[in-house]
Amino acid sequence: MLPSATDAAPPKPSAARDRLLETASRIFYAEGVHAVGVDRVISEAQVTRATFYRHFPGKELLVEAYLRAADVDIRTRGAAAAEALGTGDPLALVRAFVAGVGDEICLSGFRGCPFINAAAEYPDPDSAVRVVVDEHRAWFHDTLEALLTAGGHADPAHGARVLVQLRDGAMVGGYLGDQETARATLIAAAEGVIGG
Q1: pTM for this prediction
Q2: Nearest residue to 127 via CA among 72, 73, 58
Q3: Residue 81, Cα to own-chain centre: how many angstroms?
Q4: Among 109, 101, 122, 119, which Cα is nearest to 169's?
Q5: pLDDT tier at 10 (50, 70, 90 boundaries)?
Q6: With 0-12 CB in 10 A as exposed, 13-18 as middle and 19+ as buried, what is 45?
Q7: What is the four-CA torsion angle of 83, 88, 90, 93, rounded to 10 degrees?
C-alpha cells in the first residue's frame, strides 16, 4: 500500500561518499544549509576536495542528496510501520504515521522538518532542491490520502491535506515551542481528522 522509496538508481557504494553525506546531513540539519560551506563538510568528513567533487560536483547536489536520504529514511520507517501493523486497518497506519511525527518532534536535537527548513533556504520553486522537497511532500500527501481512502474516510483528499498541514505546524511548533505540547496537540487534532 505504501509507495516504495525513490526510484532513482542508488549511487555506487563509497565510504567517502557515505561520510560526506552523513556529515552534511548532520550539520545541514543542525545549522542550516547556507550557513555551512563545502570546506567545512570536507574537513569534518575527512576527505579531500577532489573526493568531494568526484561525488558531488556542487553543493546543491549534496543538498539534494541530503534531502533524498531523509526522504528514503522516512519512507523506510513508514514501510516498517506498515509491515508491523499489517494491512488490516489503514487508519491505524495513519495513526502510526502521526505518532511517529510526534515522537520525532520530541527527540533531542530536533530542529524542525528538514524539508521545510530547506524550502525556506531555497525560495525558487523551480530549484532542484525544491523539486526534492515537493516530491517528498507529494508522496506524504498521496500516502495519507490512499490510506484514508482505504479506511473509508468521507473526504480523503481533504483529510490528507489537513493532516499534512497539521504535521507542518507541529514540526514548526515543536522546534519553536514546547515539544510535548506540540506532540499532544498534533495527535489530538489528527484524531479529529482521522475519525471524522
Answers
A1: 0.88
A2: 58
A3: 16
A4: 101
A5: low
A6: buried
A7: -40
